[in-house]
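Why do we care about 3D structure at all? Because function follows from shape, and shape follows, mostly, from sequence. That is the central idea of this module. The next example makes it concrete: a single protein chain, its amino acid sequence, and then its structure expressed as tokens.
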Amino acid sequence: MKIIDGKKIAENLRTKIASEVKQFSRPPGLAVILVGDDEASQVYVRNKSKACVEVGFYSDQIHKSANITEEELLSEVTRLNENQTIDGILVQLPLPSHIDSNKIIEAIIPEKDVDGFSSENVGKLMQNKPFISPCTPKGIMKMLASIKCELRGKDCVIIGASNIVGRPMSMELLNAGATVLVCHKDTKDITNKVKTADVVIAAAGVAHLVKDDWVKEGAVVIDVGINRLKDGSLAGDVDFNAVKDKASAISPVPGGVGPVTIAVLLENTLTAYKARLIDS
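And the structure:
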């Protein structure tokens, strides 16, 4: 059994990005908008800003009150769209309930949509012509590549069908030649469906959902879940201790998908920066 070290993969990617950034006359700029005082979101934003500094990016952290109107937030996005020192714009989700997240995401011009959530960027991924792809699925592809997991012809099961992970993940795997099954809350007989998988990607947001009897011997298991338990500790969607002895490779929580996702965000920002250099 191999533990997929997300921290190491992320470190290698950041080193590569930092080396490339030194060649440019101005640093790539990433703006992160945080709305409200959600503790988990604040941690994510701090980690993203810290990673920016580490690779030599310009980081603009914008904190807005939870009472901000949708119109005011759209105006902020427009301002950043027009700011020539900003190459990537990220709005930290979730947003307060009175704001339409989709409207905000679509307001970010695709050239600066470093989360890869806009209809245009998701559409390009679906056509297998990706420009900027959603960070977590793209990061998972890097994790699978790190263990030389050949996906062509493999049976892959994704648990969770969100726009952030499950749906774009299915496209990444399909583009790599895998056969893909996406399970969700209405899926029948989910345990036996997961058992067929050569690769299992758990992104349901339910702590310890995937048990050892869900996983076939030798499967590769990627755990996207980050769940806070009553004792304050973090747990993934996979029962790591139970599943690790059946899997040929498995990602831990924490230290797996999370660090790679942030590193890919930086890579996406660099991609956006270089595309704008070519266009200018």
